## 1
Amino acid sequence: MPDWLGSVLAFFLCYLAFALLALCQQAHRKGVDPSACIPTAGGQRMRALCATLCLFTALALLLAGQGGGFGTVLWVLLASAAALSLALTLAWKPAWLRPLLQACCLLGGQVSHRT
Amino acid sequence: MGAATQKQNVKTAAVRRTGRGTLMLRVVAAIGGGYACTAALASASAQLLVLAGGMARSEAVILVAMLGFFLYLALLLWSFTEASVWRVWAWLSVGIVIGVGLSYGLALSLVEY
Amino acid sequence: MAPGKGFRQSMSWLHTWAGVLLGSLLLAIFWTGSLSVFDREIDRWMQPGTRLAEPPPQVSLDRLVLPHAKNLAPDAPVWTINLPTPRVPVLQLDYEDPQHGRVRRYINPHTGELIVDQGSWGGTRFIFPFHFSLHLNWRSVGYWLVGAAAMGMLVLLVSGVVAHRKLIAEFFTFRPRKRRQRSLLDLHNLTGVVVLPFHFMISLSGLVIFCLIYFPSVAQALYPSDQAQLKLEGLGTYSRPPSGLSTDIASLDTMLATAQAIWTSQGKPGGAYLVRVRNPFDRNGHVEIRRAHTQAVTMNADRLTFDVTTGALLHQHSAAPIAGVQRFLTGLHFIQFDHWTLRWLYFAGGLAGCVLIGSGLLFWTGSRRARHERQRRIGARLVEALSVTAGPGLIIATLTFFVANRLLPLDGPVTGNQRAVLEGWVFFLSWLTTMAHAAWYPAQAWRRQLQAVGGLAIACVLLNGLTTGDHLLHSLWHGKAAIAGMDLMLLALAGSCLLAARRISLTCQARQSNSPPEPEAQRHA
């Protein structure tokens, strides 16, 4: 695949990873959707694991596409850019992350908020 | 302002003066002493790497110069967290003496290089 | 908060003080560093004569450069020739002239004609050197100041992370709608923590570039009498003294071809980027050819030196392992490689650094202003004035530098290096003016200077269109990426600064209408 596509994919993988990690924190969950489910400890671990997998996939993608030197540097910088973008999303447009939070709740590992 | 408060202010002023003096000593130790200690230990390490480690001279210079930044950073941070200024001066002086001493000692062995 | 009283408190104290003392200097370094990412594009904008099309893949130095070199600099001890690249579509000839100092002339690689002296140092010879030496060349004072600032940056990064109590909890936190101090601190923490790898990497690599300058004692210890030997063994810089006997120069093109062949046989891709002729007409003269480093992060030290008379190979060099690490870190900082995504990410990282430092300074002055006014201390006022000077003030200086470049005539009474010096004077004098303005009108300094940035940036775009005909639509249509990019960035700068100024005035108006009118509140509007 062309280099730029690899970079874009890696960026979105990192963004997804950081979104999952942010949604493990109560303050951000409340900001995105106050009425969302509360994840169990197992659910939290699952989200963290998915996030880690996404980050490593992004790294592998970049290393494969652009070699050791460029790949590593690009990964570090794209990860920072993704984390920053996510923080700005949470600050100004938290509602954009609602679908992701709902998907996490649907996929299980939650405590019903009626309890 | 009552007499008690005035005495308190005088006391605080005196404490502030000695405090400022100690602070200056610490800053000089950290920035100047830290650099001197780093440079001294770095020179000695470079010589040791060549003499004992068999490293090429230019390689040793570059390796030690790069690692020197980490040592200086550590010394800077430590100088400001260590409680006693005198301990800071003491340890930095030890470092400088060891570094300079070793440097002079090893310089003779390097002459044939 | 004091040093030596607990680990976290000491780090907090250190972070505050180092930040206050070094903040403005670091802001200047980060700003000029961010601009230097695109220094060659700035060159194209400031030197319209070099806005040529894509260079031909092969150029003949013998035919295109040697005649000009022999004509312009027959007595110069060194000729440095830079081959054209997509970012710099011209041949560059550098030499030292006893009357004019260090001269750079451009040559059209298609026609071989000498381009009119553009009389500007542009990004590569003004903004970039400011970044690493502050143009303070007396006894390398500038280098040491920048080095100290870089060490300070490392201290600030580590102490900042240690002092940040809620690192994980507030990792993604940014609350722009809370009160000013909270939002500022959030922004400072965010740009500090999330972009930490970049900030640490860029500061460390910057120091590593000059590691031999910053630790002269180490070089002295191992090379007590012969620093030239260190340069030869470490970097491959071959040298031999002139013989006094004259000679003719052999074919540079043949040497280039030989160099290419040698590197290809060693499995090293890419051609040469630089040819340096030392003592060109002396029997002992030599030609150094360096391999391009656009395909990798590492700025390789692959250098071949040839005899100037016979073209025979005198010396080969490539970096040893540890020198290679130093060259990798150097390359990490210089970003001369061909990777536009990375280039833009570095630019964004540098600007994030500016936001980090600026928000820190604003936070500190905001939290101390009231107290210092009560106690009649100048600390907060001083730091605030310096922050404005190093922030919007420096941007204003940069923009007036660009405006002067467009307004000063090329064929007027001042040409060549003298014209470039004049541009430099405009930069420093306007910077001084912003400092005076910040000191005199502290209350409105931010707003007014941000508005000035907006106005000046738009003026730059208009002047480019008027004086060169390469206005934005024209450059976009003809694919002149450097010029279009520069104009677009200038417009983006204008937009964001005017928006920021508007926000500041709205906040002030809101504050005024909310609280009962007092002389104090009105003075701060």
## 2
Amino acid sequence: MKPQPASVRIAAGQGFWGDWLEAPYRQVTGGPIDYLMMDYLAEVTMSILQKQKSRDPSLGYAKDFIPLMERILPIAAQRGIKITANAGGVNPRACAQAVAETARRLRLGGKVRIGVVTGDDLLGRLDGLLARGHELRNLDTGRPLSEVQDRVVSANAYLGAWPVVEALRGGADIVVTGRVTDTGLTLAPMIHTFGWRPDAWDLLAAGTVAGHTIECGAQCSGGNCLVDWDGIPDLANVGYPIVEAAADGTFEITKHPGTGGRISVAGVKEQLVYEMGNPAEYITPDGIADFTTIRLEQRGKDRVRVSGVRGRPATDKLKVSIGYFYGYKAVGTLVYAWPDAYRKAQAADRILRQRLANLGLKFEAVLTEFVGADATHGPLARASAPLDQLPEVQLRIGVRSPDKAAVERFTREIAPLILNGPPSVTGFAGGRPKPEEIVAYWPALIDKRIVEPCVEVVQV
Amino acid sequence: MRKKATRRARRVRLLDIAHARSGDKGDTANVGLIALKPEYYPILVKHVTAARVARHFKGMISGPVERFELPNLHALNFLLHGALDGGGTISLKTDAQGKVFSTALLRLELELPK
């Protein structure tokens, strides 16, 4: 038996699909790490990928993962860095195959083993599950899924760390998954390294907190940080976070030397509360983490120690993320300039709404915002700012409807305002807005026993 | 009159004693409010109640406000239900994911006893 390492270093490379392309490369080259963790999937992402897969069965994963692998795989293979990523989306096998082809092209044949985690995709099983009495009620509204059954476009259960652990135990160097939780991608290497047991709830909770801390990439190393935001050094070269974990579940958050950004207690706190519900019950498939037990301590420059995390047993349910077709929306904008910029934008809004009413168009919602005046802080901003001298205001008006024709007609009512509405208007270079299909999100729970994760490890 | 009131109370803007980060869960925005110094945390606990925050966001949210305490981080977590025009892909708002509810909360002014 190999001796157990004293620590494991897990580096965050992507906080979402579309994050900085340089970050993973810098993580594997900027200093020693053991694992590169990359989170690609947001709630909306799965339905976009499902749509791509329905057009072409070889698609449905994060395509830019492949050129990224082409760039970093030789380095990772040489340095023995393993990779966990949920880039597989709704087609992890196709993603793994594309990675394998890339590896072969790079003459890494025989040197790389790829793990694939599937079993999260419930779309094909949904009708059967509903027929057998699984209601999949919406966690927010309580409505049964049968109400939108014919409009469902994607359905994925959130798998936890354990299938990823199984792939690592099977010798995988790269683990490509479907809908594995963001935190599971970080927790799995810790479980694998230290041999944590499935009922070591405090340790699993600690690893989950580590995952939550780095799952949004630079958002815990100085990015989007409000505290002393203009004193944070060199964000142009921001270092993405690295977890250095010990077998007892304590860990330190740091980043490579010579990189920009900052790892501070205040910055880590901001990330810990991000997208937080009840902090005493952070529920994952692997267990429940109690964020009110976390202790933070600055351990030198760009190094924060995390300890004290307590956990509780996992529930017998898994969360299911379901996407369903909802309707259409479109958003149009025009910019009005000084003088009276705000009043002109307000007048244009009134005229536009009058015209929509005259046309007899019905919408589920019409929303007007005045960017530069109140778009983000609403009445709180209007109450405090002098609105009569604004240099410019962007009128931003959006509509939503199940009726595509109504949304389409709306998009043709923006441009005419340039010549037949209030003066000093510009900013229409983008052209007519396009009606956009809305795929809405339906969160539900399902019995854990229903979902069977599948793990394969293949040699390239 | 006004002078007398000033002697009895001082006005403190949350921006000067706390920082914050916000995000979304469906149609709910969450705002984590963190004391800039440990000694400010009891002020947040006492004065920044769920009811006070609901009043602050009147007209901007359609549902109730929930509050949770994280004394270990000197932080409070608020859930603002019905804040995002349906949330996610449905929302027509610029801030569909509630990213800047954080600083909107920091506009809140407290009246503290001298």
## 3
Amino acid sequence: MTSCTPHCSLLDLSDINVLEKRVAKVLKRLERLSQETISWHIKSAISSLNIIAALYGYWIREGYKSGIERIVLISKGHCSLALYTWLAEVNIIKEEELLSFANPRSRLQAHPEAGKVPGIIASTGSLGLGLSIANGIALASKMDGIDREVAVLLGDGELDEGQIWEAAATASSLKLDNVVALVDRNMTQHSGFTEHIKIKEPLKDKWRSFGWHVIEVSNNLKDIIRGLMSADSIKGKPKVIIVYGHSFRY
Amino acid sequence: MPDYSSYRRAFAEALVYLGERNPNLIVLDADTARSTGTILFAEKYPRRFINIGISEQDLIATAAGLAIAGKIPVAVAFAMFLLRGWEQIRNIIARDRLNVKLVGTHAGLSAHFDGSSHQCLEDIAVMRVLPNVTVVVPADAIATRHLIFDAIEKHKGPLYMRLGRDNSPKIYSEHDTLSIGKANILEDGEDLSIFVCGSLTELALDVSKNLKSMGISAEVVDVYTIKPLDTTTILKSVRRTGHAITIEEHNIIGGLGSAITEFLSETYPVRIIRIGIRDTFGASAKSYPELLSFFGLTVHHVLRYIKKIITGEVYAPQISK
């Protein structure tokens, strides 16, 4: 399912195809890593892959074209292997460095750390903090009159944390329309099926009742990008893109 | 009735001055602005004040985001409830060494009426165990002013400041120098080092005065920086006196006493007696002096205790109320 606006027709398909090819390569790399040496939260990484590719490979660059500075926060820190293999794919880090994952001296700590991994400005790993952090950055930007937007990747299990809802209430109270949250709704958390643990549905209604604009998309690159584009036009309230399901078999 | 001044008043007024001089200063509170005093800043600089509501975890991580974006956030709440966000303090502010100043008010027994739920006797312990966090405990209102200026204009990185409420003794004058990282010798002595922090500093001075009349010369040291400890001053004092007691409005586990004990046991082991709250929770009282008396934090109790130690009557102190 998608939530489409007239913007959809302006999607640059050639760009998207290039991105999709990159994602396919990253997926292969992830699967290879997991078979050889590094298998850690692999399913969690895979389900976030399209979101990471959409944000880093499309959203940030589109922002620059319009003079908007865009920042990504990975609140769902345990999907780090998706981030790291993406960074290797786009040559921000060397492929060989992936093998140093989770060594004490490595830049690639199990959960991303600021000042170590290129492009990470807040260390995560502890779930539930990222939305508050995003709000703080977004708020500072508004105070300074800077055109800056923050996207924050949340896990759906992470929504169990009360702090997420504290931050959700803050974002809408302060009208932080430069915050866009993306929820990796893979229906899975550590102990299993999310709805058997703590019921999150009706999730879109929850976000709406907290004053957020809700966009629902499927977990594929085109839909996520469409979702991000439709978020552009929403003013006065923060936005959440709920990314349903996963597109890769595992 | 002792003559108190107010920590929170001094803090609140200092923030307003600092707000004028530092356009990047942002103050956050968790719905307690009228109690902590940040209401003064809120009224003067409404666009730089955020009431995050009764959400301390959100308070802390939002402050972190502001710091990442280049602001100087001061996150204020009752010490007890700031600690609800201890994990957030650790996992984003301490780990990333963010320039966030955390101020916990109403600490110790200062919230005398509110009782044990509100009386934070553990904050020094849990804040000093965090890497990269500076911990300061101003002795009085004037020290509060000096140290918050230092914290915001000179110090960089995570910092926790512990404040009482309206129970500040009067120790310092405007001309005194205090800087983060140091301890001050308030009185020189030969026989006993009394290390104290915060609201019980006057008590330490009174104890010293009484000991003098008993022929014991006590050196009183205001250890207003708990982390990093001013080890030079502490070591010099104990080398001179050979004996130490510590006094704090905090659990004797993990606070100033523990910090001093940890350091001296490695470098210059002497017997150290920790005076404070003996691993128990607080209680409600209609006045602060009544509460101090209830917990044995008066000159009379402390002297009686010291005498028992000197005479050998007490070796392993019991929990007393």
## 4
Amino acid sequence: MGVWIMAGITFREAARKKILWTALLAGLAFLLVFGIGLRFQVGDFRNSAVPPFLRYQVISAMLMIGLYTVDLLAVVMTTLTSVDTISGEITSGTIHAIATKPLARWQILIGKWLGFVAMAGVYVALMFWGTIAEGYWIGGVMAQHPVRGSLLVFLECIVALSVTFMFGTWFSTLTSGVITLGLLGVAFLGGWLEQMSGFTEGSRLAMVGIISSLVMPSEAIWRRAAFEMESPLSGSLQFSPFADISIPSGAMIGYACVYLLIALGVAVYHFGERDL
Amino acid sequence: MRKVFGGKVAVRDLTLTVPRGEIFGFLGPNGAGKSTSIKLLLGLARPTSGEAFVLGAPSGDVEIRRKIGFLPENFRFYEWLTPAELLHLHGRLCGVDNSKLSERVPALIDLVGLTPHIDKRLQNFSKGMLQRVGLAQALIHEPDIIFLDEPTSGLDPLGRRMVRDIIRAQRDRGATVFLNSHLLSEIEITCDQVVFIREGEVVTSRDMRKQHEEAVRVEVRARKLSPECVSGLSRWSASVQVDEERLTLTAQSREPLPDILRYLVDAGADVYQFTPQRLSLEELFISVMGEDRGF
């Protein structure tokens, strides 16, 4: 019961943060720009000699870039809204009135985590499916497996959330935010390096990417999501930046799930042991 | 209990017993380890060594917290809540059902004098108003023991009186109140018992209900004080000083004071003033703690 009360109040608390509304506004602006861009491209194609097959591939690539933007927005928004929920409340003393109530520390942490999971779920659902809908209604294209794609983007948000919680039980808000964003940066760079290694079959470059993904698997999850959503043809033709050059395996997604659970477990353990 | 942060000893060797149903004052200078001690008792921090039991359960026990109320020193909570929403939330966390909460919440808001502000958000509240809400949340589940950390520091005199009345009412319904305050005058008129701590150790304690058993200094202003009369006072006091019309003596308790006054009058002295004085808590505090050492 305590877990759900904490989840509810955390969801409401998170929903009041300016960063969430800023991210939502940015998301709406993105959907607007994306929709206008798609409409212009479709209009331009009508007056051009570009064959329908190629038109479809271009619009599909635009959809993938749009979904990648949603992915980045969702992960950064999840990190920034949740970064002070543990460390900030410890510093301000807000946690004292809660932690002396009859609920275990793990219930407080898991309740807060669930609140942010729900918020990330709502954000991903709105933005991801908004983009998919625009691609379908304006551009006439559909992702290959949008449900799998959206679930993977959601998983990526939860991984970032769990890592943010883990550092939040140790460090100040600023420090844990910098560390988490730094790890996301490492994963971003590593993912693209691994992708680039596919062109030259460079195993050393690929190794850098793999190690980066092991340190923080967020970008690997996105590349798997891209693989699931791209049409097999455009993927194999390497027509988009997310073409099937280096595809993270199912084992990597399994690793990401274990990684998430370990980060959350460490957060629960350390929050339960530390002085408040 | 002992608590060490890094190399710094915050609580050296705290040993105390708080009787049930009493208002217990916890006094000490800044940095004496009062807040850390409360955190240890509430399970917010773990002792480096030693242990504490609250209502018979180890400190930090989750279930026993249903019987514990706590007002932190600087009560803060989500500022977008109204007082009623905050109390409902804390009540639900304590396992109070909604039907009871619908009665208790408005009653408590009224008790702490915030009914006119019931629909305002906490972000518009002053420190004193936040403290009133904090006190209400500490009482929402009718706890058996209430820890109050500086409950009156942000309040005006009327607010202090209100808190004092609430504390006494809690004691009268059988609850124990553990009160940490810098306001010695408040402690003096509220508490049943006080302990003084310094550097995380209990230095001394005082039972406020047994003040009549404590030594009393008496100042007398009188004429016609004969040497025989003064020497006769030795049966009640080992310390008698005379300076012209001013006589000072120390009695072991308040009990013999009527006999002393009667003796002086019967001995022919014209008594203009007879003033018993006991050490105030502030004087005792200073005598125990010494001068300000920059804590």
